[in-house]
Each structure stands twice: as C-alpha cells, then as structure tokens.
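Researcher: We plan to redesign the surface later, but first we want a full-length starting point. Tokens attached.
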C-alpha cells in the first residue's frame, strides 16, 4: 500500500508539473497575444493618421485659393474705406479747426444762471 501511495503521490506531482507547464504556456500565449494586439492597433492608428492627414492636405489645398481671394478682396475693401476716411478728414479738418477756434476765442461773458442779483 505504501508503494501505491508513493506512486499516486508521484503521479499527482507529475500532473501538477504538467498543469504548471500548461498555465505557463497559457500566460506566455496571452502575453504574446497582447503584444500582437498592441502592434496591430499601432499599425491601424498609423494608417488612420496617414489617411486623415491626406484628407486634411487635400482639403487645405482645395480651400487655399479661396482664402487668398477672400484676403485680397478684404484688403481692397479696406483700402477703399481708408481712402474715403482720409478724404472726409481732408475735407472737414479746416471746418473742425475753425469751429474749435471760434468756441475758444469767441467767449461771451455771462452770469451763471444760479447767481442771484443783489439789489
């Protein structure tokens, strides 16, 4: 009976070693699958970045001309408005200066309305 128990224990130890090997292989397999998944995901991300970058460049090129024409139009409008403002300034500056001088020079001395006359 002792020999049978010894053999059973030996069989259990061998089974335990085999189970440990299976568990270790499963862990290695899982780690390898995670590494593979990460590298695959990085590849997909890189491809997605490339496609979006190409789309953006195409969009930018298609709208670049529009931006330049709009900027040129705005510059022309600004220049026209500046000319109008300068013309108005040149036409009215003498009148404004004259009005200011008239107000400063032509002073009519009057009593303040709150001052009461004393008799």
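Model: Full-length starting sequence:
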């Amino acid at each position: 009976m002792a020999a049978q128990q010894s053999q059973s224990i030996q069989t259990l130890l061998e089974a335990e070693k085999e189970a440990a090997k299976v568990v270790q292989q499963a862990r290695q397999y899982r780690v390898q699958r995670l590494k593979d998944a990460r590298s695959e995901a990085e590849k997909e991300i890189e491809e997605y970045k490339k496609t979006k970058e190409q789309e953006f460049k195409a969009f930018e090129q298609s709208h670049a001309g529009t931006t330049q024409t709009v900027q040129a139009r705005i510059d022309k409008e600004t220049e026209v408005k500046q000319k109008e403002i300068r013309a108005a300034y040149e036409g009215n500056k003498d009148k404004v200066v004259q009005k200011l001088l008239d107000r400063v020079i032509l002073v009519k001395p009057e009593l303040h309305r709150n001052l009461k006359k004393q008799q």
